[in-house]
Write a structure and sequence with these properties.
- A hairpin with an 8-residue loop joins strand 2 and strand 3.
- The strands form 2 sheets. The protein has a 4-stranded antiparallel β-sheet.
- The chain has one domain.
- The longest helix is centred in the last third of the chain and has 14 residues.
- Helix content is about 25%, strand content about 45%.
Amino acid sequence: MYTPDNWVILKINYDTKIFYKILAGWSGGYLDGDSWRMNSGITKVEVDGNYYLFHGSSGSVYKCHKDSETLRMNNTYIYEKLMKFHGDDVSRINYTDFVKEFTER
């Protein structure tokens, strides 16, 4: 289980399919620096108190605090790179819109 400091949901258009992924970030300290991860693709979401549990297709679970849905320095660079190389095929989507789209599939 991964518990990031901040996170956003990415909507990815690939071929004729739509995928949703978590782009997560962790703020590091003096010795270990910032880091980021992107999950394998959201397959299921659960609500656990103040957290969303995003299950990935690889079996991973991202435990994301509801108030931490944002880009920060630790994941903004990756998001900007994705936008630069993939343009309109990658976009950020908020949790509320994600739930509407994800449950309609």
